[in-house]
Amino acid sequence: MADTDKVRIPKWTFTLVMVASIVGILVIYFSTGFYNVAPSEVGLVKRFGKYVRTDQPGINYHLPAPFDSVTVVDVLSIRKIEIGFRTVAANRYASVVSEALMMTSDNNFASVECVIQYRIKDAYSFAFNIHNPEEIVKALSESVIRERVALRTVDEVLTSDRDLIAMEAKDRLQELLDRFQIGVSLENVRLQEVNPPTEVLAAFDDVNSAIQDKEKTINTALRYYNDLVPKAQGEAGKVLLEAEGYRDIRVLAAQGEVARFLQVLEKYEASPEITRQRLYIETMEKVLPNFKTLILPGDSGNTLKLLDIQALMNGGGRQ
User: Fold this and answer.
1) How many CB atoms lie within 10 A of CB 68?
2) 3-state DSSP of the chain
3) Beta-carbon contacts of residue 62 (< 8 Å; ≥ 6 apart)
4) pLDDT in tens for each of the 319 residues of the chain?
5) φ/ψ of residue 53, rounded to 5
6) Which of 7, 117, 120, 164 could cross-link with 188 by S-S, CB 3.0 to 4.6 Å?
7) What residues does each domain of the chain span?
8) Which CATH number fits domain 79-196: 3.30.530.20, 3.30.70.1140, 3.30.479.30, 3.40.50.2300?
9) How far is the C-alpha of 160 from the C-alpha of 295, rounded, in Å?
């Protein structure tokens, strides 16, 4: 084939291809500015290293690098810090002795494992105010927990003050986080495991067993006391009431006798003979029914007369 038969590409075609390539590159370049923000996240956009705006969840756009950059922060999910242990798998944990071992106010030691849960309340402060904020939150949390434990004896840490330590630590830690403007809000501080160090665990178990035996004995004595004392108090009350009732009966009877005597005395003073005769008859009416036979002296001589009371009552006569 002769050289004159070679195909020549028009100059305008080459220019068109170059323009199309440049446009394609620009489209691809600017399309890299699209990004997605998840429902629990926000996007912090910086332009030439300076914060300019916060993008909300959804499809957003920023100028491609090197003009803009974006930092995505999860502000709704609960984050967790573990002190004294680490979660290695589901329901499997590994102790971190260097973190768990804490000194108490009586120069003893306790193994304290706790969990701090928090969320991001200010994405800008969390992302830009402090370098590596999660490590700062962890360091502050461990420091505050150690401070609260150091204010109490080992017995208080192991038994009565566990919840109080958690509440005080939460308030103190939140105060420090706000002071340093880390942008974190605490959700919960919980002491999960609080035990004596392994080296003295057996001795603490013996002490706790003795304390439990002591409390058991005290509770048994209290149950006996609570059972016996109310019964004794009830019996005492019953005897007292019976005595008071007997006293009232005797007093009222005596008062009645006095009133009756005064009435008789009044009538006796008014009519002595009649009253004396009436009293005699009333006395005989009470006494005679208790006898079956009476021996009566005669009017003269030594003759004795018999009066058969039973026969009189049955319709008989005098012997």
Assistant:
1) 17
2) CCHHHCCCCCHHHHHHHHHHHHHHHHHHHHHCCEEEECCCEEEEEEECCEEEEEECCEEEECCCCCCEEEEEEECCCCEEEEECEEEEECCEEEECHHHHEEECCCCCEEEEEEEEEEEECCHHHHHHHCCCHHHHHHHHHHHHHHHHHHCCCHHHHHCCCHHHHHHHHHHHHHHHHHHCCCCEEEEEEEEEEEECCHHHHHHHHHHHHHHHHHHHHHHHHHHHHHHHHHHHHHHHHHHHHHHHHHHHHHHHHHHHHHHHHHHHHHHHHHCHHHHHHHHHHHHHHHHHHHCCEEEEECCCCCCEEEEEHHHHHCCCCCC
3) 33, 35, 43, 45, 55, 68, 69, 70
4) 445 555 565 666 767 777 788 888 888 888 888 889 999 999 999 998 899 999 999 999 888 888 888 999 999 999 999 999 998 888 788 888 888 999 999 888 888 999 999 999 999 999 998 889 999 999 999 999 999 999 999 888 888 888 999 999 999 999 999 999 999 999 999 998 888 877 666 677 777 788 888 989 999 999 988 888 888 888 888 899 889 889 989 888 888 888 888 887 777 777 778 777 877 777 777 776 766 655 555 555 555 455 555 565 565 544 4
5) -165, 170
6) 117
7) 3-74, 79-196, 201-270, 271-313
8) 3.30.479.30
9) 95
The residue type at 274 = I
